[in-house]
Structure formats: C-alpha cells, structure tokens
Amino acid sequence: MIDLDRLIARIEQLGQVGALPGGGCKRLALTPEDAAGRALVTGWFRDLGLDVTTDVIGNTWAIRPGPGDLPPVVMGSHIDTVATGGLYDGTLGVLAGLEVIESAIEAGVETDHPLAVAFFTNEEGARFAPDMMGSGVAAGALPLDAMLASRGIDDATVDEALTAIGARGDAPVGALSPAAYLELHIEQGPVLESEGVQIGVVTGVQGISWTEFTVKGRSAHAGTTPMLMRRDAGHVAAAIAMEARAIATDFGPPQVATVGRMSLSPDLVNVVPERATLTVDLRNTDETRLAGAEARLFAFAEAAARDEGCTLTRRSLARFEPVAFDAKLVDDIATAADRLGYSHRRMPSGAGHDAQMFAPFCPSAMIFVPSRDGISHNIEEYTAPEDLERGARLLADVALARAGC
Amino acid sequence: MIDLDRLIARIEQLGQVGALPGGGCKRLALTPEDAAGRALVTGWFRDLGLDVTTDVIGNTWAIRPGPGDLPPVVMGSHIDTVATGGLYDGTLGVLAGLEVIESAIEAGVETDHPLAVAFFTNEEGARFAPDMMGSGVAAGALPLDAMLASRGIDDATVDEALTAIGARGDAPVGALSPAAYLELHIEQGPVLESEGVQIGVVTGVQGISWTEFTVKGRSAHAGTTPMLMRRDAGHVAAAIAMEARAIATDFGPPQVATVGRMSLSPDLVNVVPERATLTVDLRNTDETRLAGAEARLFAFAEAAARDEGCTLTRRSLARFEPVAFDAKLVDDIATAADRLGYSHRRMPSGAGHDAQMFAPFCPSAMIFVPSRDGISHNIEEYTAPEDLERGARLLADVALARAGC
Ligand SMILES: NC(=O)NCCC(=O)O
Ligand SMILES: NC(=O)NCCC(=O)O
C-alpha cells in the first residue's frame, strides 16, 4: 500500500527546488529556496485535505483528522539541506510520511490516533546552529528566544529569516504533541550497504558537540617578521584542526571529528593572520568518551594559542548527549521488518535527527535505509528505489499499528 | 633641507584615504580608495609643476624637468596597502621623494639628471598576485599581458580594475628609464630598533615564493562518515600549513613561511570539506635554500593529498630570486649616512620592494628606517618623526649626489 512512483516523483520534484548545476540541491534553512520547498510540500499536504499548522519557528505539520481527540502519531523529518545536499536527506522522511497518509486515505484505512506528517525548521544546522533547532523548540528542549536570536553564517538571525521568507506561523511551542514519533531516513553512512542489510533499526543517536574557536593574534608582514616573533592565529587554527583528527584517531571508532569551517583574517597571502575561526564537530555514542574528546581538544587549543601568544575564545554551537530511542517502538520496528521479510540490523545513528528531540517526550524511533557508498551531505547522495519502497512500507506498517487500525 | 612637518602632514593626509576605524588604512590596489590616494598624490605632483606621466598599468611618475635630456634619478615606492595596512609602508618612499624634489626646488638646487618621484601599481600583491607588479612591468621583468589578466581576491582582473577606477595611462612599457633608482622604506622588521641603529643600508632583497594550493576531496557527513573513509580537503590544507611552519623551524632563520589565506568549501560545520585552498609564502636570502624549502613543501603536499585520497593542484603566484643591489650605490648610501652622522648597518630586506625590479636594469638601492616593534602590515605600524627625517635627508643626499648637483 505504497505508491513508489508517486513517492519518487515527489522526491525528484522537491529536488528541483534549489537544484545545483551538477545535481543535488541547496536549500539552506529559511532561505528563499527553503520557502519554495515549504510551499511545494505544504501544497501537497493541502491537496490531501489535511489540517495544516505552522508554529512560531516555522515547523509545519499536517494532520489527517481522526475520529476522537487522541494525539497523533507523527511521521516527520526536515526539508532543509546543506549547501552540497542530496535529494533524500530529510525529504524522504517527510514525503514517505505523506505517502503513508495518502495511501491510507486511498485504501480507506481508519486509525484511532490521527496520522500526521511534519517538517521541522533548520534540522541541518548548516545555516544556523544548533541543528535540530525546530524539533528542539517544538519538543521544548531548546528555548525559543535563544533560537530566534541565533545568527547564521550570513549574519541574519533566525527571527529575521523567518520574517524574510514569511515562514512564521502562529501555533505556540508545544502545539504539536505526538502520541509517538517515527522518522524514516537514509542512513547517510556505509554500514547497511557494506553489510548488505536492507533496514537499519535505529537504537539511538550519538552525542554531538559543535564548538567554534576564535583565535586572535597579530597581523604582521610575512617577509620581515621572524618566526619567533609571530602571533599567527592561522597557525593555531591549523594546529587545532590537526589535533581534532588526532583525537579521532587515538579514540578510535565511533569517535569522529570534523573541521567543517575555517577562515582567516585579513586572508592575504603576505600577511600573518590576525584572526582565525574554525569549527570542530565531535561525536561519540558514549557521553563520557565524548566529554573526554572535548576536554582534550579544549586543553590543546588553549595551550596552542598560549604558545603562539594568541588569545582563544570558544563558543558551543550545539551540544546533545547521546539519545536512546524507545525500546518498545524499536522492537516493533524490528518485528515489522521481520514480518515484511526485510533483513535488518540494530544500529546507532551517526547523524543528528529530529527524532532525538522528541525521544524524551514521547515514544520515538527511526528507520534507516541504505545510502550508496555511505555518501551524504554530497550531491552524489543516492538511495535505490527498492530501498525507498522498503523503508516507506515499514514506516506505514509501524505507524498504522501505533495509530491503531 | 627637508621639511619634516610637511612630509608628516602628507603621510597623515594620505593615511586618511581608506582610513580604518581603529587606525591604519586599507587601500588595496586599484580599488576606489587607491584611486582617491592616486588623485591626492598626483595633485601634489602637479602643484609642484612637475611633468606627470601614467603608463598602461597605472604606474605614475613626476619629473622635475632638468637642463638636458639625461635620464632621471627616480625615487619611488607604492601607495597601495594591504587590508590591515599602516601609514608608512610605501607611502614614505613616495612622499619623501616628493619632499626631496620640493625642497630642491625651494632651495633653487639644480641637477644634471632630472629628479623624479614614482608610485607603482600593486606593489603589495595583496589584491593581485604577484607583488611588485607595476614596477615589474615598468622594468620589463613581468609581461604586461599576463599581469593585466591576473585575477584578484575579489575575482576582478587587473585590466578590469584599471578601467573601473580610470587608472590606466597611455605611456608604454619602458617609458620610465631611470639613471638610478632609490627607495626609502620602513624596515617593517625588528632589526634596526632592537640594535638601536638609525639607518639600514639595504644590500638586497630575499627571494620570494608564493604558492596557492587547491585540494579537492569529497564532501561527506560529519556524523556518519568513518574517519578512514574521508577525503577531507580541509585536513590536507591544515597539514600543509603545519608543514610550512615546520620547514621554517627546521631551516632556521632567515627562512620564513606564512599561510596567509585559507578557505574551505562548502564551509559548513557538519560537512567534511570537499575543497580547500591555501597560500604559502616562503622566503630566504639564499636561492638554493629557498628552492629546497619549496621542494620539501611541494613533496609533502602531494603526499598528504594522496594519503587522504584527495587531488592537489598548485599554482605559483609569485617567484622572485634573491636580488643584490648596486654595490656602488649601496656604498654611497653608507658613506652619506656617515657624513650625516647616522648610525647604520647593512642588511637584506625581508619584504619585496619595487627597487628589486629595477635592480637588473639600472643602479638601484634602498634605505631603511626603523619600524616600532618591527610591526608592519598591521595598523600599529609606526616610525618616529626623527627616523622619518633621517631617512628623507639621507635620500635627498644620495639622490642629489647621483643626479649631479
Ligand atoms: N541528518 C542530518 O544530516 N542531520 C544534520 C545534523 C547533523 O547530524 O549534523
Ligand atoms: N614592502 C612590502 O610590504 N611589500 C609587499 C610585498 C611583500 O614583501 O610581500
């Protein structure tokens, strides 16, 4: 009871919004491209006759009215992308949720709990930190005011961006109160493909730590300034980047460390940089290990700055402890996968997801489908049609069961 | 016969053009600020009744007509600055040259060779590579066409920028043919100040090598991509930056190495960078050592890229071998300093200068005055009035003697 062609057609149509020349797309949160994506998806919600609501941070959900006033079983994810995004990250969870509802309507299937589909604002965290911002606000885990004040990579605040694209709704924080939350997502990593497994039954999400370091040194002449007299902010930044890699190596998997952003000022070939900023993304499934990685990185950064005669400031952009999903819901997914004959394995998620923000407040869980070559946040991101179908069917199965049909 | 107040007033007035909020100034080559600086200085040239000429790359010189048609003794430097520039780098050489001519006119001193003062386009190399571009073209050492096609940090070409600010003149390459070239400049380094010496008699300029590296890897998800599967262009860039520092340390003085520019793409906190560019500025007074530093850096960069599964391209932005100034002119400067009672020492220049471009074609030399704390390419750049005066007097002495008076 899933129309795969319709699902794929929608994924491709949404992929045209913010399409990049070489494939993939760029729909950074709350940009005009995101606005166009929101309009397209909300149009599909309305075409089905669903009740559409948008809250004060732009989260949007559509409910198929049910017989009573039980809370809805929500299927959701996000439609924003990174700057080098693919077609599936986030959109699959939203459009598969829509497909489940449309199929249920077509099949005349009624449920005790209403079915709902949602997309949340700025899940990627690529424009505004932290990631999972909209779902974090919706679930009450992140304070609305601080999030509205978050300044993006282009210096606009979330507040300004919401206004600019007209994405602010009037539903208050807490207006969405799911009976359960389910998210289908591409794995974005290599595990399922390399093991030849069809479905990932996601047990939880690893902890995430994002730190921005700003190093201040002194601009100086590249030709005349003896090495020992330099206070080179760029050198400290490079040293921190190397240490991040060393931490990942020394800790071993599942520790990962990424320097995604770096910039120097004045950024001129013959001027010793007076300022450098960089971000370090650290993740681990184990909170103690993650805190240990942070401690080592922070201590190193302080010492490196001091040795170079620079000053260092450090700002936390995101910090989420590891999250465990609802044991019963996780079991239900595994059982349903068995019933459908899909091979599956339990696994933690390497990426952050909206589901983790709901996990403390309602039974929440996730389903992964394979990513070709484990690639995501890249225009080459791809998941095969049969995997999309298995994921959507399993989502339908679990959601309908939860909703009571 | 130098009016120090007039000289300082002009330095300060020119320093108002492109003034930065905290002091210092930003007059990147061929920007509107540079245009305003050119207009101001050219106005002073004309006020003195000098013959002003501008050539096809914007170099501008002013000649005090002499009795016959001997070639001029040229005093020159540049008026462009880096983005965090001070008030003295370049401007001192130009405005002291102007002061020497004005004082000579006032004193009624006639010379056999005409006296001339010049400023050359894009000496800093901060907007367009290479540095010493205008003087290199004027002296016939750099090809005009390639220089006009050079693309700046803002993507405009020299050709476009010349047109945009109307700085292109009609004098052809080679129109300026000095009998001798003399340049007064701040040291921009710590040697004179730390040794308590008043004048640097510059024997030559160290070799300069500027390389831009572009690393291409693969964008990937920061949370899901195992460390061993990454092709992280940013990691390679950081490793190259660390190696540049290690080369300077291992080679020891006078080897210096600077990473002035670095940028990552897509430059997002949770995306492994797919592209990184960085520049490395290497300098040494010894050509063999400089070539050795380049060889080690290039080999390291290739290996680092290969180890990370990335590709590397490398582009030379500037390459100048060490230059020796004219022995007789250097001796003349030392002798004149003795006569004036100024303490002095011979020293190589750490920075590149327009004088080095003329050195192969006519007797050329330079005079340094101390820089406070050795700081330059920084808004704190400062040279005390008495040092400015000594430098200008010595310049006058040597220039008038050369010109025959
Ligand atoms: N799923 C996903 O790519 N989320 C972005 C947040 C993160 O994990 O960095
Ligand atoms: N004098 C000076 O700062 N020149 C700029 C060229 C360089 O040495 O990088």
Automatic annotation (TrEMBL), chains A, B:
Q: Which UniProt keywords apply?
A: Hydrolase, Metal-binding, Zinc
Q: Where is the signal peptide?
A: none
Chain residues that bind Zn(2+) 2: D89, E124, H377
Residue ranges constituting the Peptidase M20 dimerisation domain according to the UniProt record: 204-306
The cofactor note reads: Binds 2 Zn(2+) ions per subunit.
* Keyword Zinc-finger in record: no
- The residues that hold Zn(2+) 1 are H78, D89, H185
Q: Which SUPFAM superfamilies match?
A: Bacterial exopeptidase dimerisation domain, Zn-dependent exopeptidases
One GO MF term, please?
hydrolase activity, acting on carbon-nitrogen (but not peptide) bonds, in linear amidines
Source species, domain of life: Bacteria
The family database entries (PANTHER family) matched by this protein are listed as: ALLANTOATE AMIDOHYDROLASE (PTHR32494:SF5), ALLANTOATE DEIMINASE-RELATED (PTHR32494)
The UniProt similarity line reads:
Belongs to the peptidase M20 family.
What is this protein's name?
A: N-carbamoyl-L-amino acid amidohydrolase
What is the source species?
Answer: Sagittula stellata (strain ATCC 700073 / DSM 11524 / E-37)
Lineage, broadest ranks: Bacteria, Pseudomonadati, Pseudomonadota, Alphaproteobacteria, Rhodobacterales
